[in-house]
Design brief:
The complex is a heterodimer. Chain A is of the alpha+beta class. Helix content of chain A is about 25%, strand content about 30%. In chain A, a hairpin with a 5-residue loop joins strand 4 and strand 5. The radius of gyration of chain A is 18 Å and the shape is elongated. By secondary structure, chain B is an alpha+beta fold. Chain B has a domain of about 90 residues: Roll (Thiol Ester Dehydrase, Chain A), CATH 3.10.129. Chain B has 4 helices and 6 strands, in the order βααααβββββ. The longest helix of chain B has 11 residues. The termini of chain B are close together. The model of chain B has no long low-confidence stretch (mean pLDDT about 95). Classes of the chains: A alpha+beta, B alpha+beta. The interface between A and B is medium-sized, with 34 and 33 residues.
């Protein structure tokens, strides 16, 4: 933490995160092309036996253009926005002190292979609780037509110095 | 066609063994290469007992019984709180047990809230684990 201070990040005394971060909006991420094999790999890694996630023919029979990603796949796209937050010197977040507090996804539709997705993140709140900081960030994920697909909200707990 | 769901119904259950191989597979699939999920020395250096499962792996596994019951396309919202870390030993496995129960039906919105109880060794590892699913049109 001391090193980070010397790099010029602004801190309240003892606080692990810049309190002024709330309300910060980050630029839209580069488009992410959802690949069929990535969806299948992710589905297998999260215990899926859902034919619609694993078998393109089953997905097509169910009315989808290609395999349907499991609900938490959106984190792969959201991660690019969280990367922006962790890389932001102004935020002053030490990644080794970060713990995932909670996670939420709100869907307009499932992610399907072939989707070209972009995400825009806004830090919605920064709170302190017992020396820890809790940063909540909301990432709005849209398809190539600009239609909403899913909103991913994470609360990261940044452990304090104590 | 109706789901004929009632509050209190257990709509799905699941049992998912997690071993170190599963963590490596999830790291690759998700792109989350935080070494606390595959290296004991790194995990211990930041004060953890050892390698932990990715919270997002736990969240991803826990929803699968609901996906199997209703299909991904009917899931409107899914949230969890990571209340207890899940250590995964270098040998053997831990088992994630999931029970999905209808907590609320909102006829006006056409949705049901399904609450997940997610346990490892009888200890709850996810809090406020809730899935909102669209009811079948009838």
């Amino acid at each position: 933490m001391a090193d980070r201070r010397e790099q010029g990040a602004q801190y309240d005394s003892g606080m692990a995160v810049n309190a002024d971060l709330a309300g910060t909006a980050y630029p839209e991420t580069e488009p992410y092309l959802v690949g069929r094999e990535k969806v299948r790999e992710f589905a297998r890694a999260t215990g899926s036996t859902d034919p619609v996630a694993l078998d393109p023919a089953a997905a097509e029979a169910a009315g989808f253009a290609d395999v349907v990603a499991p609900p938490t796949f959106a984190v792969v796209v959201q991660d690019r926005t969280l990367g922006q937050l962790l890389a932001d010197e102004r935020a002053g977040i030490d990644f080794s002190r970060v713990v995932h507090g909670d996670q939420r996804f709100t869907y307009s539709r499932p992610i399907v292979a072939g989707d070209l997705l972009t995400a825009r993140m806004t830090v919605t709140s920064v709170k302190t609780l017992g020396g820890n900081a809790m940063v909540t960030a909301e990432s709005d994920i849209r398809d190539a037509a600009g239609e909403h697909v899913v909103t991913a909200v994470s609360t990261l707990v940044v452990r304090g110095d104590a | 066609m109706s789901d004929a769901l009632a509050v209190g119904d257990v709509v799905a259950t699941g049992r998912f063994p997690i071993d170190r191989d599963a963590l490596v597979r999830y790291a690759g699939a998700s792109g989350d290469f935080n070494p606390i999920h595959y290296r004991d020395d790194v995990a211990q250096s930041v004060g953890l007992p050892g390698v932990l499962a990715h919270g997002m792996l736990t969240m991803g596994l826990a929803v699968q019984p609901v996906v199997n019951r209703f299909g991904s396309a009917r899931i409107r919202d899914y949230q969890v709180r990571f209340t207890r870390p899940v250590p995964v030993p270098p040998e053997g496995e831990v088992v994630l047990e999931v029970e999905a129960k209808v907590a609320r039906i909102d006829e006006e919105q056409g949705t049901a809230r399904v609450d997940l109880t997610v346990r490892v060794d009888d200890a709850t590892v996810l809090g406020r684990a809730q899935v909102v699913v669209a009811l079948e049109s009838r």
